[in-house]
């Protein structure tokens, strides 16, 4: 892992440990010991150094602000999202410098950050298929395989928490939407039929991706595809689509910006195939936002719908007992909006509530600890594509096709 990736994983592991420590009961200590054991077994020198830096920074912050108030849900969520946004910005800069130097025939001063493969769902899905069906791993984009697996597992347990708590694209979308609201004030909503038509876009994209991953490449052809130049250069092909704009890619990018700026959570609601996939799997999650009818102020005759008005996905929370909507990102804004005297909403099962620190800890377990174990124990993270091969692929990039 590169320095930026190591610092991000160390910060995530710290958040995981903090979230566990907020729990009470005997189960906390075995869980914390397992996390420490996993770190000891899988971490390398870079990661130990990153953990020392993160721990030192947090300790310095604690000494400077000893009387800081308790961490609220909003502060935790925004802290997590901005941490990943900063990390992605640094990763993007590092990757661009790497490719620029590679194209000039120089030896890159900075290593290639493998986390860029997270934007390759097809490579990740095909790598996961090859791993499951043939027992072979993808040597060129293993981080893509790990990302698809980790996000899939997280959705099965904690729903779309990644969307509400971690996705850096969601933060960028909110910034773009706020900018539009300053220039052209007002929240704009579409008629139901048009909203449904636009939401179908992400399902069409998801269907296309699943078709390629599941059906387009036969199992017997997987080894050949994973060894092909096109697959090896998948990350550079993806980058070229956005940075070397053609008429088609320019129109696609313009449409993404238009929907994202015009409507609140426009990208998440109308375009993101990852969000569609996580929402689909999230239906199977045992955790969801639940409303206690006995506690709810509406049962006492009050016309309260604060939870629904707070929901960025426009879900009518006040009309359901358990939210099973595919658009719910488990962001907890509805829970925070519920009047404290009622305390009628919670995230969890019928019998158990999942606190904010525990939700954050579970998310960090999937996003940081599992990739660490894949890297340290299975050697599934760093691309094995030789530098000279990658340089050659960059030079013939316009001519590569499936």
Report on the architecture of this protein:
- The structure is a single chain.
- The protein is mainly α.
- The protein is built from 19 helices and 2 strands.
- It has helices spanning about 5-20, 30-40, 45-65, 75-105, 120-135, 140-160, 160-165, 170-185, 190-215, 220-225, 230, 235-245, 245-260, 265-270, 275-280, 305-310, 335, 355-375, 385-395, and strands spanning about 290, 345-350.
- It has a two-stranded antiparallel sheet with strand order 1-2.
- Helix 2 runs parallel beside helix 18, helix 4 packs across helix 8 and helix 5 crosses helix 6.
- The two termini are about 30 Å apart.
- The model has no long low-confidence stretch (mean pLDDT about 90).
Summarize the structure.
The protein has 402 residues and is mainly alpha-helical.
* Major sheet strand order: 1-2
SSE run: HHHHHHHHHHHHHHHEHHEHH
Oligomeric state as shown: single chain
Helix content: 55-70%
Please compute the radius of gyration using only Cα atoms. Answer: 22 Å
CA-to-CA gap between the ends?
A: 29 Å
Main β-sheet description: 2 strands, antiparallel
> How many strands?
2
Content-based structural category: mainly alpha
Low-confidence stretches: none
List keywords for this structure.
402 residues; mainly alpha; two-stranded antiparallel sheet; membrane; transmembrane helix; cell membrane; 4Fe-4S binding protein
